Amino acid sequence: MEQKKDKPKKTKLIIFTTTFVYLMILIVGYLNLTSIQDYIKLYNYKAPSAISDLATQDTMTDYTRHLFYLNSPQILDTVTSFRNQCSETKNIIVLGCYKIGQKGIYIYKVNNPLLAGINQVTAAHEVLHSVYERLSVADRNQLNKDLQYYYDNKLTDTNVKAEISLYQKYEPNSVYDEMSCTYGTELKDLTPNLEKYYSKYFSNRLTIYNYYSSYESQFNSRIAKIYSYDTNLTSMNSNIKSQQLNLSSLYSQINTLKAKMDSLKNTNVISYNSLVTSYNSLVNEYNSLRDSNLVLVDQYNSIVLLRNSIVDDLKKLDQAIDTTIITSS
Q1: Over the stretch 150-193, which tens digit does the pLDDT of each residue have?
Q2: Kind of pairing between the strands at 74-76 and 96-98
Q3: How far from 329 is each of 16, 323, 326, CA to CA, in Å?
Q4: Helices (H), the chain
Q5: Residues 55-94: tens digit of each pLDDT
Q6: Rg of the chain on CA atoms, in Å
Q7: How far is CA 71 from the centre of its chain?
Q8: Phi and psi dihedrals of 89, rounded to 5?
Q9: Is residue 314 classed exposed, middle or buried when 0-12, 13-18 and 19+ CB atoms within 10 A define those classes?
């Protein structure tokens, strides 16, 4: 009789234990759902050499590289293929995009050798979007405070200020997200809090900044040179016009004096001869000023050619990063 009573107890214990284990599996699975999903997504994934090279060149930490690969990054070498993945944003140069939910990172391939490093900076920028999305609410709120503090008190870089202004205008809901990506790739000196944040994702963040500084200098140096030439040309143009006004005045004086001398030539030789020295002096002054003006005009034209050559170089750089799609009206 006692053995018959013991059997149901053992059965209940087995059922309870099985249920408990099953629930624990569900709980652990739920708590690690993201890790499981990542594992499934990355199962058998092998990063192409161009992608793994970008991760190495950007000094991505293991976690950052994990997120980078999780997005199956693609480098696209035509505007059409790039724009099939990344939409245009008004007045903002777009060379890469991140699809929310770890659904992809796309990078436009910039081939101009003068802009070497731009693909590395783009990759770092986009993976930082992935990082930002996975932050806890508390960590994100703290980061946003640090980003805003820097913006209010430390930000002096005019290019970055202009970028943030565009995000504030056209992507107001993503400003902090964009700040986190822009600060980490385009600013050399940050607050200790921000440096600590980025150190989790890049072992040497300044490597990325150096890439940025290198290719950005290609634009800035040309713009500065064009500005310098324009300033010089404006001054030279003013001098040329002033000289030409003086030449016109001298020419008028010469003609007036010549007419007077012609009227005296056959009637008053003495008066005529007294004017010859003044006439010759005016002619010499005119010729000297004319020669000087011609030299200045030649210099002006030479600088215009140099200036326009740099403008053409700048246009080529702009074209190398132009991902806009021109549609016929």
Answers
A1: 999 999 999 999 999 999 999 999 999 999 999 999 999 999 99
A2: unpaired
A3: 72, 18, 9
A4: 2-31, 33-42, 49-57, 62-70, 79-83, 118-133, 137-153, 158-170, 175-186, 192-199, 205-264, 269-320
A5: 999 999 999 999 999 999 999 999 999 999 998 776 678 8
A6: 36
A7: 23
A8: -120, 125
A9: middle
